[in-house]
Specification:
Length: about 700
């Protein structure tokens, strides 16, 4: 087994001008393999005449690498390697003495000794390092998965000895997919290690140990009429067990068992750098979390970028460790890794067949349509039916897309105007309310008896799913650094009052005399996901606010709350998204959104929107607040109007001390950044507080 990015770039050979003989197969395929490496580097291999082979490093150049990287789907090459840096290949060495100008569309247009003509050994296998930027139309490459001989096992399943409808299947006869059918495995030489591999592929961390006997000694004479009359010895055992604290979690994934790897260190969650990230290390993570072995090890922040510390680099696991903290790793500095290198995993999970009870109909693509679910009638028959769209929201759509295996929810539709392709008209589900984490709509709350005000098919629920989603997080340290109090004269607050940015008592003030005391701070909102954050409403429905001279694309973009020690709101503010735009971006990323001249609004992946402390409504009105200890809470996208890959990081909290004249913020952090122990200490600072976003 080797570790490979299955980058199957396919090219059609030209009809003339080739130096190498034309391949019999019309399409060439290319891949990067080897170890240690990242997804955009590796030993270059080409598939020709039904066989994978390597390229010799004789006469190799950056021009050769540029051609190959483009065929792999990258924009260009940044380097190349010689002398089998990524390990020696097997089988054929297909090309030798390759000489490209750099502009060729295919490696076969370059000069060479011809296909299969080489005087090299695999000690001279060439490698390439590509720029980590994809050409349009190529699938994501940053996956390191298992490369296997195509004649070996394709899939594995358990066939239960006794037929059952119960899922998942946890025991049975092992069968493997071979050619067009399923075959069994001879048990000669079968070991528990083999079982562990099979269980891992099927989504289970290990085999079930069956040698735990409660009755461990029986000594009957043979004349007893009942087993209870025999001398018995019971296994006392130690049933107390030991709870092991999980020090790893997955964030930002669309499905169960996938996501960005985050580890807990010094009571703070942080990410793992993808240097030398392999399936072995990824499998340790998966099994520690109760899943099977890793299906894919992902690099290059494939599941979005984290915020805060990067705790580990160059993780090196053998695959037998109980926790990733038992593996070798390096501590890192900021020069070693950035969050664009955050590692992620996709784990093997037990098959539950949940996708068989839901479908989409009428959509233009398989990612959208009217939601239809399979329900069971009183007489036991199953027909398909619709879901009432009345209370349907983004969170319900997230569960539907997850159940369908179609990634994240882009939109939850309360009305569907899709073509009726299935002739299904009956509402079979209503009042669906999900937290957003469920695996199936059947796991969500819903009415026992269908109750839907609008029963026409066009008022049934629909979804638009997407393989990627945005993810907004707040820069917590900036809030803490920028906070201050301002006593602002009322005559400067007319526009703010019009937009309801002041507390209710302002209405009875002696305008324009007097002032309001404002808690001011800056908000810097980053999009660390994999899709741009766009307002749900199109420009045609944005509302013009003449006083401030701008459009609102979202009525409520952010909630600002000051909470007492028992969690009660004592002051609140809100921010309409009058201008969602790219204030700044990380190096190499271009701004896309600008509010000037009625421009498109949004936040690009890798960019952030800055709301400075000195703009209107960037505050909480604390005029009526008494001195004391409080919690400042800021929640982005609080009504879940726009879909994100992770809503758990949308809240930020700070301890707040106010003496009547000055204000101090401490321990500002995202809602899920601390360990449970550190979160409890935080909450005890001003008193107890329920850490739930309502």
């Amino acid at each position: 087994i080797d570790f490979s990015s299955w980058i199957m770039a396919q090219t059609t050979p030209p009809t003339q001008g080739t130096t190498s003989p034309k391949p019999q197969n019309d399409r060439l395929q290319f891949r990067l393999v080897g170890y240690p490496r990242k997804h955009n580097e590796g030993r270059i291999e080409v598939f020709y005449k039904g066989e994978w082979g390597t390229i010799c490093d004789d006469d190799f150049s950056l021009s050769n690498a540029n051609v190959l990287c483009r065929q792999l789907g990258f924009v260009s090459a940044t380097g190349w390697t010689h002398s089998a840096k990524y390990g020696k290949g097997l089988g054929k060495i297909w090309l030798d003495n390759v000489q490209c100008n750099g502009g060729e569309k295919s490696i076969e247009l370059c000069k060479s000794r011809g296909w299969g003509n080489s005087d090299c050994t695999h000690d001279e296998d060439a490698g390439v390092v590509c720029k980590d930027e994809r050409l349009p139309g190529f699938v994501d490459s940053n996956i390191i998965d298992v490369q296997m001989d195509e004649n070996k096992v394709e899939k594995v399943r358990l066939r239960p000895v006794v037929p059952t409808k119960k899922m998942p299947i946890t025991e049975g006869v092992v069968e493997i997919k071979y050619r067009n059918g399923w075959v069994q495995i001879c048990d000669v030489g079968w070991t528990s290690k083999n079982t562990r591999v099979i269980c891992g592929m099927l989504g289970f961390p290990d085999e079930k140990k069956k040698n735990q006997y409660h009755l461990h000694s029986v000594a009957c004479v043979g004349t007893e009429v009942h087993l209870a009359a025999c001398p018995l010895e019971f296994n006392k055992g130690n049933y107390r067990g030991r709870l092991r604290m999980i020090m790893v979690r997955l964030k930002g994934g669309a499905k169960l068992g996938e996501g960005r790897v985050e580890v807990l260190r010094n009571n703070e969650w942080g990410t793992v750098c993808d240097d030398r990230w392999t399936l072995l290390s990824a499998s340790v993570v998966c099994r520690e979390l109760g899943f099977g072995s890793a299906k894919e090890a992902l690099t290059g922040a494939r599941m979005g970028q984290g915020m805060g510390p990067i705790h580990m680099n160059e993780v090196l696991c053998l695959g037998t460790e109980k926790s990733m903290w038992n593996c070798g790793f390096k501590n890192i500095t900021s020069e070693d890794c950035q969050h664009v290198e955050d590692a992620a995993v996709r784990c093997n999970t037990p098959y539950m067949a949940l996708e068989n009870s839901i479908r989409l109909t009428g959509g233009r693509t398989r990612y959208e349509g009217r939601v239809e679910v399979l329900s069971t009638e009183a007489n036991g028959t199953r027909i398909w039916g619709l879901i009432c769209g009345g209370a349907w929201s983004t969170k319900e759509a997230m569960v539907a897309c997850r159940q369908l295996g179609l990634g994240y929810a882009n939109h939850g539709l309360q009305e569907t105007w899709y073509w009726d392709s299935s002739n299904v008209t009956e509402m079979v589900m209503s009042g669906v309310k999900c937290t957003g984490n469920e695996m199936s709509l059947s796991h969500c709350q819903h009415h026992r008896t269908v109750s839907c005000q609008k029963t026409a098919a066009k008022f049934s629920a629909g979804v638009i799913c997407s393989e990627t989603a945005s993810d907004l997080v707040l820069n917590a340290p900036l809030v803490q650094q920028s906070v201050y109090i301002e006593d602002r004269p009322l005559h400067m607050l007319y526009c703010a009052a019009e937009e309801n940015c002041l507390s209710k008592s302002a209405a009875s003030a002696n305008w324009p005399y007097g002032h309001r005391r404002l808690l001011r701070f800056s908000s810097q909102i980053h999009n660390i996901g994999r899709a741009d954050f766009r307002p749900k409403a199109g420009r045609h429905s944005w509302v013009w606010h003449a006083c401030h001279g701008h459009y609102h694309s979202m009525d409520i973009f952010t909630h600002y709350d000051l909470l007492s020690s028992n969690g009660t709101k004592v002051a609140e503010g809100h921010k309409a998204s009058f201008c969602l735009e790219d204030t700044e971006c990380h190096e190499g990323i271009s701004k896309r959104y600008e509010c000037a001249n009625f421009g498109e609004q949004g936040i690009t992946v890798g960019c952030w929107d800055l709301y400075r402390h000195d703009i209107d409504c960037q505050w909480i009105d604390i005029t009526d607040i008494k001195p004391g200890n409080y919690i400042l809470q800021i929640v982005i996208n609080p009504n879940f109007e726009v879909a994100e890959s992770d809503f758990t990081n949308n809240a930020m909290k700070c301890n707040c001390k106010y003496d009547g004249h000055r204000i101090w913020l401490h321990n500002c952090h995202m809602g899920d950044a601390f360990s449970e122990e550190a979160e409890r200490r935080f909450e005890k600072y001003p008193g107890q507080f329920n850490n739930q976003i309502s």
